Each structure stands twice: as structure tokens, then as C-alpha cells.
Automatic annotation (TrEMBL):
It holds the Pfam family Laminin_G_3. Residues 68-200 form the LamG-like jellyroll fold domain. This is LamG-like jellyroll fold domain-containing protein. It comes from Pedobacter puniceum. Residues 1-20 form the signal peptide.
Length: 258
């Protein structure tokens, strides 16, 4: 009798482990998780930018005027292809002298970085981004090695050497989406760092929260409010975000990351 119970236990354990492995990976070894599962990403709230001119104004704080090494990362779920006739601004701090991260006009579902107005700073291959799918996107810039690396779901998709200099801007706001060439889709968990995070750190932390006292973290917009006309920067109140033209608060149901 004990032998039968033990055999049944082994069978159940093997089935559970096989199911867990199937749920963890799907094609190209990209992680699959749910934005609303217990994965450390917070309450599951997000913001929907569904029409032109809907964006978040995060102000002109000097902490966001980054002119050296940096890391920008966020979750996105685009409602349409990126790069169709516009640059699809995700994170933007006056690109002529600052930094930009988003789609690139004329490049279908590519991710682009623009530093100090150089429109050719860095870009990924077409179809890096998958529309109507939650995915984590990020870029790092190392001012010493002059290296820009762009990531999707914790994995590097392009590396570029850029020999320019960021002069910065003291009078212009950081925006999430923008008043023109606005992003169309959902967004969540925006983190901005004034250091270059390593590839290992990006992979280890892209699908979880990080402590708000993490070294180099200057802005962390979790979008956990779920209502209202502002969203908090968990790091500093001087760069809380004002919702312009009412981006919509949403709680996604199931959002697998492919």
C-alpha cells in the first residue's frame, strides 16, 4: 500500500514539474509571466494611452537631467505597430539635448534610443517588439565604454557604440508618451537610473520590483494608484507625474509575456 502511495506521489510531482517548466518558457527562451500574477510587480494596475496627446508630465527635476550613464526600463503593451509614420515616444526628456526611448519612424516594431538629438544613436532590428503583448523593454548607456545596449524581456537584442555627448536640459520635462508622436498602448513599471545597469542585473530584475533605495535609481513610476490625475515617483516627490488629457487607469486581466 505504501508503495502505491509513493508511486502516486512521484507521478504527481513529475506532472507538476513538467507543467511548471512549460509555463516558464515558450519559444526563444523568453520568459512567460502574468502581469497580474504574484510576481512582485505590484497591484497589476497600468495606464492606457489610447489617443493622441495623452501623456504623463513628470516635471523638470534636476535628478532626471541625466547626461552620463543611464538605464531606462519599463513594461509596454502596444496597441498597434510601432514606427508607422512616427517615433512613438515611450520615455522622452527633450531629445535634442537629452534622451529618448521608443519606436523609430520607418522601422516596424523596432526600439530606438536617441541621445542629444542624434537620430541614429541606436536601433534594434524590425519586429523586436510584439504588438498586443506585454513585454519588458530597456536600454543602458555606459558613458565610459560608449556602449548602448537595448533589451527585451531581460535579453540583449542590440549593442551599439555611440561617441557623442549628452548636454542635457534643465527647463524641459520628462514625459511618458508625449503630446506629439504619442505612444498608443499600455505602460507600467517605469524605472529610470543614473547608472548603467549590468546585463545580469537587467535579467535578474526585469520581472520583479526593486528596492526604492537601490543605488542609482532616480525615478520609479509603479502606476499602482489605479485612479486620479497623478502618479507618484516612489523615489522623490519632486518628479511625480501629472496625467495630461486623461490616460486611462486599467487593471489588465491576463497579460502573458512572450
Amino acid at each position: 500500500m505504501r508503495l502505491k502511495h509513493y508511486a502516486l506521489f512521484l507521478l504527481i510531482t513529475l506532472a507538476y514539474n513538467l507543467k511548471a517548466q512549460q509555463n516558464l518558457f515558450r519559444g526563444n527562451n523568453n520568459y512567460i509571466i502574468s502581469k497580474t500574477s504574484n510576481n512582485g510587480l505590484g497591484a497589476g494596475n497600468a495606464l492606457q494611452f489610447s489617443s493622441p496627446n495623452r501623456y504623463i508630465d513628470c516635471g523638470t527635476s534636476s535628478s532626471l537631467n541625466i547626461t552620463g550613464s543611464m538605464t531606462i526600463e519599463l513594461w509596454i503593451n502596444p496597441s498597434q505597430n510601432l514606427g508607422i509614420g512616427q517615433w512613438d515616444r515611450l520615455v522622452h526628456r527633450y531629445y535634442p539635448t537629452g534622451y529618448y526611448f521608443g519606436g523609430r519612424a520607418g522601422a516596424t516594431n523596432a526600439l530606438a534610443v536617441v541621445l542629444n538629438g542624434d537620430l541614429n544613436t541606436a536601433v534594434t532590428p524590425n519586429n523586436t517588439v510584439v504588438p498586443n503583448t506585454w513585454q519588458h523593454v530597456a536600454f543602458t548607456y555606459d558613458v565610459v565604454s560608449k556602449t548602448i545596449t537595448i533589451y527585451r524581456n531581460g535579453l540583449a537584442v542590440s549593442t551599439t557604440i555611440w561617441n557623442g555627448t549628452i548636454t542635457g536640459s534643465t527647463n524641459n520635462s520628462l514625459t511618458l508618451s508625449a503630446a506629439s508622436e504619442a505612444y498608443n498602448g499600455m505602460m507600467d513599471e517605469v524605472r529610470i537610473w543614473n547608472i548603467c545597469r549590468s546585463a545580469a542585473q537587467i535579467l535578474a530584475n526585469y520581472n520583479t520590483t526593486v528596492p526604492i533605495n537601490s543605488s542609482g535609481l532616480v525615478a520609479y513610476y509603479k502606476f499602482d494608484e489605479g485612479s486620479g490625475a497623478t502618479t507618484s515617483n516612489s523615489i522623490s516627490n519632486d518628479s511625480n507625474g501629472s496625467l495630461i488629457n486623461s490616460p486611462s487607469w486599467i487593471v489588465p486581466s491576463t497579460a502573458p509575456i512572450n
